[in-house]
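Appendix B, Record 12. Input sequence as logged:
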Amino acid sequence: MKKAFAFIFAFLWTSFSFAQLDRDQFAKIESALGDRSFFAGHLTGFMLYDLDSQRVMYEKNSQLRFIPASTTKLFTLFASIAILGDSTQTLRYVSSGDTIKIWGSGDPTWRYKDFSHKKIEELIAPYQVVVYSDSNMDSPAFGYGWQWDDYYFDYSAERTTLPLRGNLLEVKKVNGAPRVYPERFQSNIEITKKTIRELERDFHSNTFYYNPGNFRGFERYIPLLTSPSLFVSLASEATGKKWIHTQEPLPAKHNQLRAFPLQPVLKEMMLESDNFLAEQLLLMVSDRLFQRLDTERAIEYILKSYLGDLPDVPQWVDGSGLSRHNLFTPRSMIALFEKLYRLVPDAQLFELLPTGGVSGTIENSYQAQTPYIFAKTGTMSNNHSLVGLLRAKSGKYYAFAFMNTNYPYKASEVRKEMEKVMVMVRDML
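Logged structural output:
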């Protein structure tokens, strides 16, 4: 009986709600995605959905699971808005005399990028000693299924309870050589004969290498190998206070600091597809829910409490989409996006979505005199997806999910062909 109901539900979700498309329109989309099209050479899933009538206009392979890459951030966006409200979850603390004890809640904004606030410094200003505990951290520094050899790229910074400068080392090219900040790491740079073009970190330590003959200095940031001892040392330098690391558990009675508006963090995550922000956002969600930093537990809670009605149960394992273990179907992406569409005010939603030809990761794609694509991209080797809103020629908005996997060519070729399809759909509606 359960299987029968599941079948009926799946059928209704993707059933022939195609009355909104006439026969010629339907045939054009079928041809653009069909056996003789560019998309016949790999697996493609596509769904077009009328948000007003809540009907599926067209679907192809919408029940199949794809690696979503950074479109996973739509799930993180939903969880963040639903749980965190309007501000970041920064830290929890207790104080006594000249000492304050703090437990980080995952807030990534402390001296990271252009986020400017002094709430942490203001909180600790009256105290001489800061005791820092990371006993509330349950998730490892790297997510499940992340590629190990991404460790020296800035999009794969480590997750921690209270990041400082995004857990990154800043690199500048000065007189043909790397100059790094914080400056304490300058003495950790060594010359190598390996044919590397950027400053690269050793896998096991904060030792860095560059080749003077090949150094380009294009990579501005490199992830640091974090540790509690390194953090308290850097925090001491940054604040002029004495920081001490312990493993003291968080007491039941404590205070909490929520330091920074959430919207700028969400906007940066979405427009720039910032993996570090996405991962830290899920840690903040977990802290808000459980007073523990546990990505897996936060995901489980969101799926059961908020997303139990998705057409297909997602395999969702991280906040950023770096993991190849993430698997979502196009129709579940549409269902999730519709929740966002109903939850988030229009002005806020459009501010968060990259706009074709205008902003974010599609600034140089989907260009038009009148912007028509507002969507999150997701790209990793052999996988490229786009999920969001299409503004049709009539001015009406439709939700869509366009997911591709197992193609043997460059993602730019896939984007080019996807753009042809989206222009055609825009002009026919």
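The longest strand covers residues 383-391.
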